[in-house]
């Protein structure tokens, strides 16, 4: 992976409109800073605007980012076999739940629907007619440009009938049975930044000094230290000068998931660690990074709106917060182990037996599988499976990180970053 940030000379004339949008976003953020108490804002607020500002934020612009020509690749864009394999596990989940009708597949951060399409195509490949007759795919996506692309792609694929209508896909007041999917979604939730000084937690804020810079100050919320305590880590256990990130948005997201899901599962796939490793001695500088043009951008303030900002997920916090909202942990494993257990090898055999398979198609599939399984690329991503049963509500769940279902993948501790090409 090349850890080299592109310079301003990388911008071609055709990219000038993007540069202008970035300058406009930077001006808006600077104006908020200068009108805020202490002339500063929390890093989480900066990250929120850099990623999600309407029309200007990274995830709200017309360009589709996770592509070969974009800034990074996720597993669904690498090859459809990722979605085909997930479809096998989702069908098993439907059976385990008693084949409920209707059955919701809700994807957070759906983008232009690449993963949803490959999952539904996988169900068609598996002749899962009963599930296809009742499943409805609901994309949760903040970018209206991506939703338009998604609807167009579903129509061309002959899957429009399985797509919940945009805007009012389900009666959100009525919980559903199904699966909530979050593939590389949680890492993009805004994070607070902190540094340890004299055994105390100090928050890192963003101010303007001829550019965006970080300044230290008293924490904006006691929830930051409380999160570390809930993770089993006191500030005194962290190293002097250690930098880290905390996502308070995890609780809000799980609150929404609990309100949506009466019975079913959450599949959270992302790069991250358990808390002891995330805040351990190997990561004293934190995990915050940017991605642009398939390169790592280590300056989080470079070209706001044009750089994807991301931080590794605290899976200890996700499991604990989920338990408080009526979920139990079925398993926490690596993506490599999850895909193999779900039937990736069987999918490859089916592909190999296809009479229409070309050498180029096979080579692309093999290359994609290597990336998905290789611990140097996506293989060390974590897959957290959470389950919520009917009647299981707040305070009623007991987390079981080792997994209690027969044959559940073992608990493993590892993680990785986005897959870059180049």
Q: Keywords, please?
A:
five-stranded antiparallel sheet; 34% helix; disordered C terminus; 422 residues; 20% strand
Describe this structure in words.
Helix 4 crosses helix 5. The strands form 4 sheets. Strands 3-2-4-9-16-15 form a 6-stranded mixed β-sheet, with helices on both faces. It has 422 residues and is α/β, with parallel strands linked by helices. Helix content is 34%, strand content 20%. It has 2 domains: 312 residues, 3-Layer(aba) Sandwich (Rossmann fold), CATH 3.40.50.12710; 47 residues, no CATH class. The chain is globular and about 65 Å long. The chain is built from 14 helices and 16 strands.
Task: Please specify the SSE layout and strand pairing.
Elements: H1 16-34, E1 41-42, H2 43-52, H3 75-78, H4 81-96, E2 103-108, H5 114-125, H6 129-132, E3 135-140, H7 144-156, E4 176-183, E5 192-197, E6 200-208, E7 212-217, H8 223-230, E8 243-246, H9 249-260, E9 261-270, E10 272-273, H10 275-278, E11 289-292, E12 295-297, E13 308-310, E14 313-314, H11 315-323, E15 328-334, H12 335-342, H13 344-352, H14 359-373, E16 382-388
Parallel strand pairs: 2-3, 2-4, 4-9, 10-14
Antiparallel strand pairs: 1-6, 5-6, 5-8, 6-7, 9-16, 11-12, 11-13, 15-16
Helix pairs in contact: 4-5, 9-11
